[in-house]
Structure formats: C-alpha cells, structure tokens
Design a protein that fits this description.
It contains four helices and six strands. It is an alpha+beta fold. It has a six-stranded mixed sheet. Strand 4 and strand 5 form a beta hairpin. The N and C termini lie far apart (45 Å).
Length: 144
C-alpha cells in the first residue's frame, strides 16, 4: 500500500510539472517563444510586438533596451543567418497581471560557414499590456 501511495504521489507531481509547461497561444511562455522566433527571423516588428514599452534586457554585463537590441540585430540582415531555438521552461508563475518564467534556451546559430550552439539560463518578467503578455525584463546567463 505504501508503494502505491508513493507511485501515485510521484505521478501527481509529474503531472503538475507537465501542466506547468503547457503552452497556450495566450500564455507567458508563448510570448517568450514568439519573441525568440522573431529574433530568429530577424523580424524586428514581430520582436517588438512581444515587448513591454519599457523593456530591459540584461545580458553580457550590459543593460539594453528594445532599440539597442534592434541595433545589435541589424548587422545580421542580408547575411546568411539561421537560428533555431529550443526553449525548455523550468518554472512559470502568474499573479494577476504579472508573470515570470525561468527557462533554458539553446540556440543553433549559423552565420555563413560559422556554426555555434549557444546555451543560456534565462528568466523573464512579463506584464499584461492591452490584455496581452509582454516581456518587461529578460535576464540571460551564458552556460558554457
């Protein structure tokens, strides 16, 4: 009987963890995924559509905003650029009009003949603006 209870409890914990990772089109996770898909496509309007008006990115010991991020992507336009993202959500919390997510982001990046796999541990704080989740803060830590 004790074994059955342990198995059932493990199943419930696994089910809860799985449910947290479900992505619906209106979930905070979907916003994060659309943001990175837009970066992969170098689609600046689509990228900006996922950002709060006062977006902040903390990466590589720099504090950036939407404008500086856009300027950083500009040199890639017209080059042979490909980026494929794999995002594994670790934690998702929502309270009212605020949400935060923690995830592992792996990108396969190809620029011309150069190919790299880059991994980050990231967290994002999101707010609802106009009834949609928008990324307000994104913090990125390189994983070597």
């Amino acid at each position: 009987m004790k074994t059955l209870i342990i198995v059932f409890a493990t199943f419930l914990i696994s089910l809860t963890a799985f449910a947290q990772n479900l992505v619906t089109p209106t979930s905070p996770q979907a916003t994060v995924m659309r943001f990175f898909d837009a970066i992969a496509a170098l689609d600046v309007p689509a990228m900006r559509a996922e950002l709060a008006t006062d977006f902040t990115l903390v990466e590589h010991a720099q504090v950036l905003n939407a404008d500086s991020l856009t300027k950083g992507l500009a040199p890639l336009k017209g080059k042979s650029f490909k980026r494929v993202n794999k995002i594994d959500f670790v934690k998702i919390d929502e309270i009212g009009d605020a949400a935060w997510v923690v995830y592992c982001n792996t990108a396969e990046v190809t620029i011309g003949e150069l190919h790299r796999t880059v991994k980050w541990l990231e967290s994002a704080a999101l707010v609802k603006q106009g009834g949609k989740w928008k990324i307000k803060l994104l913090h990125s830590t390189d994983l070597k």
